[in-house]
């Protein structure tokens, strides 16, 4: 199970990479393996400003549909449009080509509320 130490994590199995005030967000290796083959990623919140823990989209796998929760408050400035044609990138490369959105953070102190890689490993029993 791949859990990069430089990223932050949520109890809802999203990962967060922050550079300046821009956060890149996707779902973890654990989440994609639990979901199975991902067939569709839907994000209709681009250009919207949402609070932390609000739903920003959904990920659809063969067997289920799961909500995606925003880890940090801010404006969703970009959706990874490559996922429209290749949603399976979330399965094959969840921390790279399978990223989902970029957010312009409105409160960087919220990063302190996210989990470290070690905390996340404890959560999932890795």
TrEMBL record:
SUPFAM superfamilies: Single hybrid motif. Gene3D superfamilies: 2.40.50.100. Its cofactor is (R)-lipoate. Binds 1 lipoyl cofactor covalently. The keyword Nucleotide-binding does not apply. Signal peptide: none annotated. The modification N6-lipoyllysine is found at residue 63. Keywords: Lipoyl. InterPro entries: 2-oxoA_DH_lipoyl-BS, Biotin_lipoyl, GCV_H, GCV_H/Fam206, GCV_H_sub, Single_hybrid_motif. GO terms for cellular component: cytosol; glycine cleavage complex. Residues 22-104 form the Lipoyl-binding domain. The glycine cleavage system is composed of four proteins: P, T, L and H. The glycine cleavage system catalyzes the degradation of glycine. The H protein shuttles the methylamine group of glycine from the P protein to the T protein. Belongs to the GcvH family. This is Glycine cleavage system H protein. It comes from Seonamhaeicola sediminis. The gene is gcvH.
